[in-house]
């Protein structure tokens, strides 16, 4: 399992988008992905069941 890419996410949100920190931390992962897609020219599509299960396995809820 790979850890969440915080360095890249923060670099994009704070550096590329130039969001103030409070705005960055209020964003959902889906909002950040949509912004990323808009900047790099990719469309953020909806996630299918397989993608959801892969994400849940990669980033499990702490228990």
TrEMBL record:
It comes from the Bacteria. It holds the Pfam family Phage_TAC_6. It comes from Devosia soli. This is Phage tail assembly chaperone. NCBIfam families: phage_TIGR02216. InterPro entries: GTA_rcc01693, Phage_TAC_6.
